[in-house]
Write a structure and sequence with these properties.
The chain has about 325 residues and is an alpha+beta fold. The protein has 15 helices and nine strands. Helix 9 packs parallel to helix 12.
């Protein structure tokens, strides 16, 4: 847990080839200083984090291959960089095919104190991911990939690449960590490969939740947590609380997760035995959010799925087909 975050060797090589001049370049730089007057200074002042112009961001994202990967999924893109506040930029990948954002990221620079870090770590520079949206508006959910809490569309399957690029961005601007606050348990489950909760107890509770769903599909555990159907030994609901997570980029930030003050509460809460309350999950499960058709057999058994029962999104013909399928399996 204590290592600083690593990115792929290919991305590291691209990062080393990108020059600061390329990242800050703009279409106005072909003009002379005499022509530009004060406009050049204004341009520099409006660079995101003092480093990135819109053209520079596009150049970097193309160099990493991210633009091409997104366009392979959703078609032509328009990249928008809003840097009215250069220390709180927003980057949007706008789909010209679906007239909707497919990726939308809001970033800002802060210090470790905002994350609850103290001492010298409280003074460290941190790149904070305020919000992130990754979605494919042209795809629909199915039972191989049902919706997670908070999702309106399936994702792009690019979170790993995007987080690695953000780690490199944080390195370039001199930050010692990339940080975010997941709004749901399912979001934290995506970030756990790269991030750790600043609070050891929060990391322990999260680990206990993950262990409770070991034999279940991850999306089903996510709904159990979201719906308050995870129970502790006293039969109380084990709820997810959004708290900051950090991906350390410096050795001193990584040492936070080696300290006794972090590891002891982590161990204490990680040992908690949690279990899914199947009866409560059956009663609360949001069938109206699920794809049409019957769920996989083991999920149907766990949720007490009845194909003849009315569901908000199902037609009578759906129920009839499911009944035929069920009778066929039982013979």
């Amino acid at each position: 847990m204590s290592r600083t975050q690593q990115v792929s060797p290919a991305f590291r090589r691209i990062y080393q080839r990108l020059r600061t001049a390329d990242l800050s370049a703009s279409s106005c730089e072909d003009l002379s200083l005499e022509d530009l007057g004060l406009e050049m200074n204004a341009h520099r002042a409006n660079l995101a984090f003092g480093t990135y112009s819109r053209e520079g961001v596009v150049h970097a994202l193309r160099a990493y291959g991210l633009v091409q990967r997104v366009e392979d999924r959703v078609g032509p893109l328009e990249l928008r960089l809003s840097s009215e506040d250069p220390f709180h930029p927003r980057l949007t990948f706008w789909s010209r095919r679906f007239y909707a954002p497919v990726a939308d990221l809001s970033l800002r620079r802060t210090t470790g104190a905002e994350l609850g870090l103290t001492g010298t770590l409280g003074e460290t520079e941190v790149l904070y991911l305020d919000s992130i949206l990754l979605q494919h508006p042209g795809r629909h959910f199915d039972w191989t990939r049902p919706p997670l809490p908070g999702q309106s569309h399936p994702g792009l399957s690019l979170s790993k690449e995007i987080l690695e690029i953000l780690l490199l961005m944080a390195t370039r601007i001199g930050a010692e960590a990339l940080a975010l606050t997941p709004s749901t348990f399912s979001a934290a489950s995506v970030y756990e490969r790269t991030f750790r909760f600043v609070d050891g107890a929060a990391q322990g509770r999260f680990s206990a939740m993950r262990r409770a769903g070991r034999q279940r599909p991850r999306w089903l555990l996510a709904w159990a947590v979201e719906l308050g159907c995870l129970r502790d030994p006293q039969r109380q609901s084990a709820l997810f609380t959004p708290l900051p997570m950090v991906a350390p980029l410096s050795r001193r930030m990584a040492r936070r997760f080696e300290s006794r003050s972090w590891r002891e509460p982590y161990r204490q809460y990680a040992d908690t035995l949690l279990a899914i309350d199947e009866e409560a999950l059956q009663a609360r499960f949001p069938w109206e959010r699920m794809p049409p058709g019957p769920p996989p057999e083991r999920v149907a058994e766990l949720l007490g799925y009845d194909p003849l029962a009315p569901h908000p999104h199902r037609s009578e013909s759906d129920a009839g087909r499911d009944a035929v399928a069920r009778s066929g399996r039982s013979t």
